[in-house]
Structures are given as structure tokens and as C-alpha cells.
């Protein structure tokens, strides 16, 4: 598989939200500390629970993000990245990532990224602003998921039969798998447990 030209790789870097404010020269300097990674079909790129020592920007091919039970919950396509949240938060990998086909990615190691930013104040400020935007977006999505969880619980409560002589018994929430997996992922960012998020949602929306 031929190596993509540097211009294409520069476009990859500047297309990622974390590096959206970088100038061409800053992106070119960052490119010097990256490396290309060739990935075989069905190769495990990242394992759930593994250390978050690097992120990967996909240049060619397709990757699949799998839940703990091996269910496909997302696909990573060229121009998208994976592993960036672990690099930013030092949290272990929250899911397994497997190659759906022969792929090529641009790897940025956490240590190299830290060294790159260390003595570049203006670049670091732009990067930090992008990180804040990214985390804020994740938190907004978490909020919407909390709303969805609470709304689903409320609808089930309204549909559940009520005993004539006493309060309603327990109601089971059955959430779509993608919502559950997203809640788990975002809980890692907010520092809350999944049960904390659901409990907070219910305390807001299920007041008697």
C-alpha cells in the first residue's frame, strides 16, 4: 500500500477538530512526530481496558468500534480519529477497535504530542481551546442522553399498570444498546458512573 503524500497527511491533521486552529506550518511540524501505521484486516487496533498511549487518525480503510460483548457500536472512516479521549484524559480504552479491512492510520503518541506542545505557547492555547470545545460537545451529548433515559423511564411509568391499593412497583428500563454504550463512554469523561448519570436524570425528571 503506497504511502500517502505529505499534503494529504497535512489535510488529515488539520481536518481533525483537535487541530482545527493549527496553521499549515504547525500542522507540518506535528506531522514530523507522527508515524504511519498499516493495519491488517480484522487486526485489533486497540483493546478495551488498554492504556491510552496514542490516538489514530484514519487515512484509508475502515475501523469498527465494538462493545464489551463484541457488538458493533460505531465505524471509523477516513478523516476520523479514534483514541483521542483516552489520550486527553489518561483513561483506559473504553472499547475495542478492530479493522474492518486493510487500513492505514496516522498515529500520534501522547508523549510526542505533549513534547510538541510544551514550548509552543500560542499553539498550546489553540489546542487547549479545541479540547474544551470537544469536551463541551461530549458533555452536551451526555445531557441529551440523560434526557432520553429520563424520558424513556417516564413513558414506561405512564404505561405501566398501577395497583389499586398501593404505589406502583418497580419499572424496568430497556434502553437501546447504542445509548447504553454512549452513556458509558461519556461517563468516563465526566467522571461519573453510569448509575450516577441515570440516578441524576431520574432525580430531575421523576420527582413525585
Number of discrete domains:
2
> What global shape is seen?
globular
Spans where pLDDT lies below 50 across 5 or more residues:
162-174, 204-208
Cα separation of the termini = 62 Å
Strands of the widest sheet, in order across it, are 1-8-3-6
How large a portion of the residues is in β-strands, by DSSP E? 15-25%
Report on this model:
The structure is a single chain. The chain has 208 residues and is α+β, with helices and mostly antiparallel strands. It has two domains: 6-118, Jelly Rolls (Sandwich), CATH 2.60.120; 120-158 and 170-208, no CATH class. It has seven helices and eight strands, in the order H-H-E-E-E-E-E-E-H-E-E-H-H-H-H. Strands 1-8-3-6 form a four-stranded antiparallel beta sheet. A four-stranded antiparallel beta sheet has the order 2-7-4-5. A hairpin with a 5-residue loop joins strand 4 and strand 5. Helix 5 (121-159) crosses helix 7 (194-205). It is globular, with a radius of gyration of 21 Å. The relative contact order is 0.14.
In short:
This protein is α+β, with helices and mostly antiparallel strands and 208 residues long.
Helix and strand layout, with pairings?
Blueprint: H1 6-15, H2 24-31, E1 35-39, E2 44-46, E3 54-60, E4 63-66, E5 72-76, E6 81-82, H3 84-89, E7 96-99, E8 103-109, H4 110-118, H5 121-159, H6 177-190, H7 194-205
Antiparallel strand pairs: 1-8, 2-7, 3-6, 3-8, 4-5, 4-7
